[in-house]
Amino acid sequence: MNIKEIQDLIKFVAKSGVNEVEIEQKDFKIVIKSEDKKARTQEQIIVQAAAPLAQIPAAIPAPVAAAPVTETPAAEVDSNYITVKSPMIGTFYRSSSPDKDAFVAVGDTIKPGDTICIVEAMKLFNEIEAEVSGRIVKVLVDDASPVQYDQPLFLVDPS
Fold first, then answer.
1. Do residues 58 and 96 make contact, with C-beta atoms less than 8 angstroms apart?
2. I need a labelling partner for 62 at 20 to 30 A (CA). Which of 2, 41, 107, 152 fits?
3. Residue pLDDT, tens place only, 68-101
4. pLDDT single digits (tens) 7-33
5. Are 57 and 51 in contact (CB under 8 A)?
6. Which CATH entry fits the domain spanning 77-157: 3.10.129.10, 2.40.10.10, 2.60.120.430, 2.40.50.100?
């Protein structure tokens, strides 16, 4: 696979909305992961080469330069908060059914053991309990959205 093919593949992933593409051939493996955050797309490229490395380094700088990260001020503000992450892959639900109220909302106080959401995985509805106490500052996932393992769900102010 040459540099032009890799760049075309990156463009395809960015336009198609596909979350992950993995191609493995006998002398290399490429994984392109795309995470859509409303208008912002960030791509990660991992290239593992069994072939001589002199052929591949030219492919790495172009994609990295195409995705600048400009969220350092927000990251500093969020560093005071505890992030509650998804313990599994599945679908995130804020309430037990569409006609019920959400388990927690922004401003609610939680303590360890409180049910804060449900993650449905393989037709099983798993209640996710708080492991920390504090106040919900932000809900990071929309209701009925797919979530990945270790994906941030809530920001909690422990004070």
1. no
2. 152
3. 444 545 555 557 899 999 999 999 999 999 899 9
4. 777 777 777 777 777 777 777 777 777
5. no
6. 2.40.50.100
The CA–CA distances, whole Å, from 49 to 29, 52, 59, 60 equal 7, 7, 12, 12
For residues 110 and 13, what is the distance between their CA atoms, to the nearest angstrom? 39
Supply 87's token pair.
Answer: 């313990």
Which residue is listed with tokens 């696979």?
A: 1
Tokens of 22: 């993995």
Nearest to 42, CA basis, from 9, 72, 70: 70
Q: Both tokens of residue 119? A: 């993650």
Name, in order, each residue with C-beta under 8 angstroms of 74's C-beta and a sequence gap of 6 or more: none
Residue in the structure block whose two tokens are 């290239």:
47
